[in-house]
Design goal:
Structural class: alpha+beta
GO molecular function, one term: peptidase activity
CATH topology: Zincin-like
Number of domains: 1
CATH class: Alpha Beta
InterPro entries: Zincin_1, Zincin_1_sf
Radius of gyration: 14 Å
Strand order of the largest sheet: 1-3-2
Helix content: 40-55%
CATH architecture: 2-Layer Sandwich
Keywords: Hydrolase, Protease
Order of helices and strands: HHEEEHHH
Shape: globular
Distance between the termini: 24 Å
Pfam families: Zincin_1
Strand content: 5-15%
Number of helices: 5
Protein name: Putative Zn-dependent protease with MMP-like domain
């Protein structure tokens, strides 16, 4: 799957976020990269920033939080196009959840691990 096709899947996954939640996503930029960091080559996505639950009155004038979805590791674990769509959706929700302060343990309980 090409980078452009994968980027479309990420955009479609973002479009599936309910509007009431999408309106609360504040100061976040979404990126697609081909490869995960060498230190964690199987990583499917990452949230880097300050979750909403940790932002205080001091929060301001900061660069946007960053969500990155990694194409090649995702494609490596998927056998079909349907698998890729499902995994992208799960990964996007997983990383957005971190923005809302939900940790990995709770995401695993919810089926987004």
């Amino acid at each position: 799957m090409s980078r452009a096709e994968f980027e479309v899947l990420v955009a479609e996954a973002l479009d599936e976020v309910p509007p009431e939640l999408a309106a609360l996503i504040d100061n976040v930029a979404i990126f697609v990269e081909d490869d995960a960091p060498a230190s964690d080559p199987e990583l499917l996505g990452i949230y880097e920033g300050i979750p909403l639950t940790e932002r205080g009155h001091y929060y301001g004038g900061v660069l946007p939080d960053r969500i990155t979805i990694y194409r090649n590791p995702t494609l490596a674990i998927c056998e079909t196009m349907e698998d890729v769509v499902d995994e992208v959706n799960i990964t996007v929700v997983h990383e957005i959840a971190h923005h809302f302060g939900i940790d990995d343990a709770r995401l695993h309980e919810l089926g987004y691990g």
